[in-house]
Amino acid sequence: MELNVIRNTDPEIAKLVEEELSRQQNTIELIASENFTSEAVMAAAGTVLTNKYAEGKPYKRFYNGCEIVDKIESLAQERVKKLFGVQHANVQPHSGAQANMAVFLYVLKPGDKILGMDLSNGGHLSHGSPVNFSGMYFDVVSYGVNENGYIDYDDVEKIAIENKPKLIIAGASNYPRIIDFKRFRQIADKVGAFLLADIAHIAALVATGLHPSPVGYAHFITTTTHKTLRGPRGGVIMCDDEHALGIDKAVFPGTQGGPLEHIIAAKAVAFGEALKPEFKEYAQQVINNAKTLAQTLIDNGLDVVSGGTDNHLLTLDLRKVGKTGKDVANLLEEVHITANKNTVPNDPQSPFVTSGVRLGTAAVTTRGFTEEDMKIVGEIISNVVKYSDDETIFEKSKRMALALCEKYPLYSKGEKLRTI
Ligand SMILES: *Cc1c(COP(=O)(O)O)cnc(C)c1O
Questions:
Q1: Looking at the DSSP assignment, which residues form a beta bridge with residue 60?
Q2: pTM recorded for the entire structure
Q3: CA within 20 to 30 Å of 204's CA: 55, 85, 361, 367, which one?
Q4: pLDDT at residue 388, rounded to an integer
């Protein structure tokens, strides 16, 4: 569709977009934070709405001519409020990190204390990493996971009582188990802290009731829209009405300028899709696929952090087999599987090398993969880890991966996902 238009004016970029489509087509995408949007979501992101400046919020703008984008942004707000059952939503954050930044700006002063999950234990950069603004402007204490890979809530409570943070962050980029938001709130109340639930990764599971919701427990909820939620790249902040004005001000003018109304329209389309009953089937299949992948790896004698998963992701622990996450992620790329290296709890390797590989099923499930396919994916990964020196097995793994890619065509050829 749009690609033809680009081809006519900028063949150089059009060709690269085509190459990227082909890369996505010929790859089994196991990066846990990625997904494939619907044709409608992608089309909405490529509309004339990109031309409009709309600083402010619906019906309270600093520019004229916002009547239509007001309606679009209101629809996005109403849909996401319904999806999660919240009182207020700001759909303007350009990304998950921007959403968190706005919450910090509203709740904290520079130098205030925050308690978040340690990056190497599964937390996100924006939860207090020293290389991120959150770690530079605030006094950070962190919690991790125990030897079994689970959050130890008694330990979180102990750290909170000792340090009295002003904000506690519950949420992760790499945690395969259920997060107990109720317990987090009890801890926050004990020390007089605000609770932020960052559900960037598990948003689709929360929206469909397949993971307990933080609504009613967290003072603020942030999420990305492009991970399990399958929308365009972006963020959302949700809260009760009492914090609505403060949060809105923290987004604009606090941390952002004009909202991306074309992306907000695409978010509205994605929220509409997520409100349909089929989306719950999708989310359930994502979990089933992750469980099947974890079990297949375990059946092949490999270790998985915490022994399995409750959600859409898992981490292969390579310490026992003496390989690094970096090496295995590179080997997987050679057999057409993309995944990222990731630290495991108490990782002896540096974050650039690591002893783990994070694997997620949100993207392949959108493509149509079922449990049977995940067993094959698990076999391929196990073969690559165990027999990487065996040329015959390696070549066979490549063929098996490509056969799965052929089985589930993307966009141009696919039935469900036709776009370009
Ligand atoms: C991905 C992620 C973010 C940041 O999202 P971006 O859109 O990349 O800024 C924030 N928090 C968590 C827990 C995440 O996993």
A1: 57
A2: 0.96
A3: 55
A4: 86
